[in-house]
Amino acid sequence: MTLTLLSLALSTGCAHRHALSMEDTLAWDVHPRMVEGDIRVVPAVIVSPQVEPITTDMLGEQLDPWLLEGRNQRAEQLDGLPEALRASVPGALYAALPPGWDGWFRDSELPLPQRRALARAVVGEGSMEAALAAAARATGGDATLVIWVVENEGQPLTAHNMVGELVMSCDTPVMVDFDNEPYEVNARVGMALVAADGELLFRYEDDYAGLLTEHSPVRLLARDMARSLVSDITPMWLEAFDEDDSTSVAGL
After folding, report:
1. Domain range spanning residue 150?
2. pLDDT tens-digit map of 167-184
3. What is the total count of domains within the chain?
4. CATH of the domain at 234
5. Which residue of 25, 87, 169, 185 is surrounded by the most CB atoms within 10 Å?
6. Confidence class for position 224, pLDDT limits 50, 70, 90
7. Phi/psi at 74 (nearest 5 deg)?
8. Residue 88: which of 222, 185, 211, 206 has the closest Cα?
9. pTM, 2 dp
């Protein structure tokens, strides 16, 4: 995937961050250093369990098999959210970088030992900075972009509301029905950008919510979450340049 220009259109879906306390918005770090050139995007690190469809209605009764088709489809689509985020985050990040930034993103593989080290680190079983540095050195390029998903859950609105009811979900009015089978999605997502020498440029992790429906597929959900994720961390990263006298982005 080589990215040189991306036009970001308004989405028909929605994704937003939960209202968190300062103690909850914990996993972030920034260093005032800019990189350009070849940015490698490795496969998403997934530590969340596989999404299983909920098979009961709002009264706890088992649904007929034909009513489960939509839920099975949504669960399968939701399993694809991590890789959809991998595809969406580079574009959102590109749009947030200063004008004149001279770089590009492309997909890259990551050796299994480094993938395992990252999977352990994102759940607190090892040094995150060490795992990210090892991944960057193994990947090559001028920097490495890593996306991870710690939690990925979806609740069908038909499991908690009457069919035919109009409810608010993700600040959007949604009709509850089995044909559309709308899912309210909650995911804990993180990303990091690491220079080739192993220096961490930024790292961020937070909770995001969105709506997955027949007309708002996982691609749009991922795009909206990617925008929110990038908009949460890049201002802090870019502002760090203004606070560091030895570093500037003015020459980009």
Report:
1. 24-51+68-243
2. 888 888 889 998 889 999
3. 1
4. 3.40.50
5. 185
6. very high
7. -65, -40
8. 222
9. 0.85
